[in-house]
Protein: Helix-turn-helix domain-containing protein
Organism: Aromatoleum diolicum
Amino acid sequence: MRSPKPAPATNRLLEALPDKDRQHFLSGCEPVTLAFGEVLAEPGEPIRHVYFPTESFISLTTKPIDDCASLEVGLVGDEGMVGSPLVLGVNVSLLHAVVQGAGSALRMDAALFCRELEKSRALRCVLKRYLHVVMGQLAQNAACTRFHVVEERLARWLLMTQDRAHSNQFHATHEFLAYMLGVRRVGVTKAATALQHRNLISYSRGNVTIVDRSGLEAAACGCYATDNATYAKMMC
């Protein structure tokens, strides 16, 4: 089993900045600890802060449609940021952002972020590339939801979560997974049981352990590798 890389000292987006720009930007950031379940943004509400996770990770979900449950469309960890509409000059959130993995993050006031964006060409370039990656991932996620079976999608989500949690163990109930994947709970139970029977994961009372990382990558749909390749091409 391959262990995940240790959590970086800061956010990978900010690490991509030239030293001078990064140090200046970091001087305006406030280190915070995000709690599990903490809501950072609501659809239609003004964006008050931007967040750059370092050890935490955040789930982005749609607004409920026709009184139905919402759907996860993004998972943000140390590779990204929350509050990206500000890069496009939009100060209202389209998505619900809730902390799924507690931990540290860097936070900046939205107004200050916009001023920094105007001053730093390097910051604009990095974040525009990131937005390109996000748009590609959103398109990939739509296709994944439509064409891939639940077991493959669950394996992909577990890998994405492990990457951002920087741990082989994390918490995710069947009810939560059904909500994230937009399927019935029985479908998640069947898929999780299949992965467990293949000795890829261990699952008990909402506690997930990745047992065989390589095997789980083989069980996941190709969207996982595609997302990683897109990020690496544009951001590294």
Q: What stands out?
A: The CA atoms of residues 126 and 163 lie 21 Å apart. DSSP finds nine helices and ten strands in the chain. The chain has a mean pLDDT of 92.
